[in-house]
Structures are given as C-alpha cells and as structure tokens.
User: Which sequence fits this backbone?
C-alpha cells in the first residue's frame, strides 16, 4: 500500500446470494430466510456489485468491485468464486496526536486485487468444501486455505458445521526485510430448523495469529528531552513504530436467529457476537434487521448494528508514561508493547442502514443499499475524538442465474 505512513485494509463484504421462489407465499420464505445452496436446476448464478465507502471530512475513500459466481457441476458437486478489486485513497490517523508537531493524518493510495475459489462435494449427509484465496496489494500479499464440513442430521433439520482456516501473509516493511504473519482458525457450529419458518444457529471460532502483527504504518509519539549543558531541557516530539505482541489468541461466539412471519411476508433476523482475545480486548456486537417483502418482487430491509469494545492492554495515546528507554526501530513484538492505533482503543460503533432488492424475473434481480457508520470513543481509555471516522457506504448489485 502506497502511503506516507499508514496502511488500511477496510472493505466490507456484501450479503450472500438469495434464491427466488415461484409464487408469493413460497417466494418470500427463501427470499427472506437464509440462502440455500444452488440446485441442479439452476446451473449457474452470477453476482456483480459496486460499493463505495466514504469517510466524512475527505478522509478515506474506497471503491470496491465484486464479481461472484456459483455453478452446479453435478448433482453433488458445485464450484463458487469471487473476484475483488479495491481502489483506496484518502487520509487516516497514523498515531500522532492531533494539533501537534507531527502529522496527524497520513495520505494513502493503493489498489488491492483478490480472488477466492471453493469446490464443494456432497458425501451422503456431509457436504465438504475446500476453499482457497489470494489477495495482493502494493506491499501486502495474503494466501489462505480452508476446509469445512456441513453434516446434515435429523432429516436435514439440524446441521453441524466444523472446519479450519489457514492464512499466511507477507508484509513489505520499508527499511528491513519482508515480514510474515500466520493465522489459524478452528470453528464449529450448529444450525437448527425449529419449524418451517424459524432457524437458530450458534458458532464458535478459536483463532491464533503469530509473526509480524504490527501495522507497519502505525506510529506512536513521545516527548523526548534534548539536553544541552548549561541550558534548560528542550522538549521534542518524536514518533516511533508501534510494537504489538507477536502472537494473539482470540475466541468468538456468535448466536443468530431468523423467523419468517408469513402473515406479514417479512422476516426478523437478529445476531449477537462476543469476542475476546489476549490483547485484553473484549467486544460485543448486536445486529437486528427486518426483511419486508412488498408484493412478489420487492424486498425492503432496514437494519441496525451496534459494536462496543474495551481498549487493548497495551493501547496508549503516547509513550510518555510507558517505561521504555529507546523504542526499537523495527519492533519484533517483545515487550514492552505499545500502540496508538485508535482501533485498539475503548470505543463503540453504530450502523444504520437500508437494503433493497428488486426481482425483475425468476432469473434477474437488482440490489441497492445504504449504510451510515459512526465510530466514537467510550469507556476508560479512548483515543482523541478527532481520530474516529464517520462514513457513508453505498452498494449496488445485480444477480443473474440460469
């Protein structure tokens, strides 16, 4: 990523495919309830979307293009893919305090290209899928692999999921050799169909990361004193690279429920996610959306999301009170650890949005969405208020299947 001092990897993914039905009553259930796999009668599905993420005050601006497809090779085997392209520009806080002698905002410009492919096969009651991904930026290369199994039980009313992910990243750090990072995730979950209109699910993920976990463009400032014999000390503000731990263990629990109200041709979808890691960050997320069917072809979905976290144990606005003599030029994760990244502070975010979907025919649908995103400091250890962004997000897409 080309930047004076900062790298940002923010590109929210869009909703998964929805499968249209054939009449009003039956059309709304698969339209409003979670998506189901492509059937043999629908040999190919293609989805394309364009998304804009725009932070207020002329900060970050990200344009994203997604191209997705899914094809049924046989009755038991399917293949899906996704292509991603991001154009990133603007400015974001690098770690220095606002109003000081060091630059607060840092210019960014980069392109990211990614590809994902997944091959799935049905083995009796098990559906096994192998997935690979590849993403490249100017200074960041990521490769990932995952293997998961969905086991259908209880006449397909219960689904057990389990799997593992492995991601390896190579980071170009200016001034030294390339650094590496590895991520491992184990996950398991259960989805239960309570009745024809109600679905509940619970998922747990255990993740571990090791290697270079710093953001190579994030800094933290310190007031150093220049001593000249016979004169008072002269305070000077210097910046140093952040130093996060070289490993991270995290746990994530997610609970989700969806109920279709046939009388109102609508569905209520709610989700709660709890996350904890050995950085000392404990976060909670809650999301509710109401998917309202209007007629045979139109769907309107207002949604709200709230997120809250406490600060990482090593988050500091400055190094002034951190007991470190001379910060390393290229920190390796050994203590003491410190970071001024506002994303590690005690803060909360809220999102309010509206998604729409219009089905032109059995095979063609168009989507549009708007989301207002706001982040602010809260709790005992927030970042300066000026660091937190407010953003608007627009998404437009089309789905074709045949």
Assistant:
């Amino acid at each position: 990523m080309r930047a004076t001092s900062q790298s940002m990897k923010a590109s929210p993914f869009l909703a998964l495919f929805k499968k249209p039905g054939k009449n009003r009553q039956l059309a709304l259930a698969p339209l409003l309830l979670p998506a189901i796999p492509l059937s043999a009668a629908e040999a190919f599905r293609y989805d394309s979307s364009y998304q804009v993420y725009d932070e207020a005050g002329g900060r970050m601006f990200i344009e994203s293009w997604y191209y997705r497809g899914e094809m049924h090779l046989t009755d038991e085997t399917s293949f899906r893919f996704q292509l991603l392209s991001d154009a990133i520009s603007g400015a974001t806080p690098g770690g220095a305090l606002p109003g000081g002698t060091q630059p607060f905002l840092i210019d960014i410009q980069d392109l990211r290209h990614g590809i994902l492919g997944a091959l799935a096969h049905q083995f009796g009651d098990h559906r096994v899928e192998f997935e690979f991904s590849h993403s490249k930026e100017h200074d960041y290369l990521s490769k990932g692999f995952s293997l998961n199994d969905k086991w259908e039980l209880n006449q397909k009313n219960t689904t057990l999921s389990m799997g593992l992910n492995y991601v390896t990243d190579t980071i170009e750090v200016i001034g030294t050799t390339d650094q590496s990072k590895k991520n491992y995730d184990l996950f398991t979950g259960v989805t239960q169909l309570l009745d024809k209109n109600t679905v509940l699910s619970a998922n747990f993920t255990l993740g571990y990361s090791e290697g270079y976990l710093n953001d190579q463009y994030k800094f933290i400032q310190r007031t150093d004193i220049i001593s000249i014999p016979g004169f008072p000390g002269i305070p000077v503000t210097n910046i140093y690279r952040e130093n996060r731990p070289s490993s991270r263990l995290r746990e994530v629990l997610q609970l989700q429920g969806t109920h279709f109200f046939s009388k109102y041709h609508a569905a209520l979808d709610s989700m709660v996610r709890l996350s904890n890691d050995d950085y000392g960050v404990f976060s909670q997320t809650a999301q509710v959306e109401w998917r309202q069917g209007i007629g045979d072809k139109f769907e309107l979905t207002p949604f709200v999301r709230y997120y809250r976290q406490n600060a990482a144990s090593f988050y500091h606005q400055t190094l002034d009170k951190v007991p470190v003599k001379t910060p390393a030029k290229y920190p390796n994760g050994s203590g003491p650890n410190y970071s001024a990244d506002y994303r590690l502070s005690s803060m909360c975010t809220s999102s309010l949005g509206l998604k729409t979907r219009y089905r032109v025919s059995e095979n063609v649908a168009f989507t549009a969405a708007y989301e207002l995103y706001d982040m602010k400091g809260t709790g005992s250890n927030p970042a300066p208020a000026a660091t937190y962004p407010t953003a608007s997000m627009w998404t437009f897409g089309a789905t074709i299947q045949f």
Remarks:
- The chain has one domain: 2-401.
